[in-house]
Structures are given as C-alpha cells and as structure tokens.
Amino acid sequence: MSEPSVFTRILNGEIPAEVVAETENAVAIKDIAPQAPVHVVVFPRDATYRDVVELAAGDPALLTEIVGLANSVAADLSDGDFRLVFNRGAGAGQTVFHVHAHVLAGGLKESSLG
Ligand code: 5GP
C-alpha cells in the first residue's frame, strides 16, 4: 500500500488548503505554488487513478465532472477563459500521483503557450 497522496491528506484534514469549490466526487483547491494569477488544482476524492490517462479509461464520467468543476472555478475566479493542464508522468513534471487538473487563468496571453 503506498502512502496517501498530498491531496488525500488534504481531504482528510491533515494538511490545510483553501478549498474554492467542490462537487460530490471532486474538489478544487488553490495551488500552493501558483504559476498564474489563478491557479487551482481539481482532483477526485477517490485516489484510485494516478493520472488522466488512467482516469479517462477507468471513469470517463468522473473526468467530465472534473472538467465541469474546472469550468465553474474559472468562471467564478476569472473571466471564464482558462487553460487546463494534466501532467502525466514524472518526465512531464507530475509530482503528485493522484490525478489532478491544473486550472490556470488570468493574464495567460503572455505565456509561452499563449
Ligand atoms: P503536478 O506537478 O503533480 O502536476 O502538480 C502538483 C501540484 O500540487 C503542484 O502545482 C504543487 O504546487 C501542488 N501542491 C503540492 N503540495 C501541495 C499542498 O500541500 N497544498 C496545495 N494547495 N498544493 C500543493
């Protein structure tokens, strides 16, 4: 059995976090090290899936719920436009192996992908 992820520890109240929105199966929190004016991570309460590829194969409805929560967070905290990033694998920068979406919003036009 692997150690609980940092997101599971947040859900369990062991680590504080600023929750900005939640649904039955997913939670959105402010990222501790923001890379954009709005930087929120959205993840399922269930830690079964390590990355977005596993989630898409195993529970596409839950992936849809995460995208919907990301959309409502961006509408609430910014102008509704956002970038949605899933890192998949350590080589792509993934550090937390509990699937999560980065919602990046506000002032993105100057960034390298913009
Ligand atoms: P990854 O690199 O796995 O795609 O993204 C993990 C994200 O989780 C990073 O952006 C990192 O800043 C964020 N993170 C890691 N630990 C914590 C924490 O304890 N609290 C919060 N709010 N975010 C965290």
Automatic annotation (TrEMBL):
Database matches in InterPro entries: Histidine_triad_HIT (IPR001310), HIT-like (IPR011146), HIT-like_sf (IPR036265)
GO MF terms held by the record: hydrolase activity
Give the record's keywords alphabetically.
Answer: Hydrolase
Indicate which residues form the motif Histidine triad motif: 98-102
EC top class, in one word?
hydrolase
EC number(s) on record? Answer: 3.-.-.-
Species name = Microbacterium terrae
Q: Where is the HIT domain?
A: 6-113
Can the keyword Hydrolase be found in this entry's annotation? yes
The cross-references to Pfam families, in alphabetical order and at most eight, read:
HIT (PF01230)
Note the PROSITE patterns from the entry.
HIT_2 (PS51084)
| Active site residues of this protein | 100 (tele-amp-histidine intermediate)
Asked if the Swiss-Prot or TrEMBL record annotates the protein with the keyword Metal-binding, the reply is no
Q: What are the leading ranks of the lineage? A: Bacteria, Bacillati, Actinomycetota, Actinomycetes, Micrococcales
Query: What name is this protein filed under?
Result: HIT-like protein
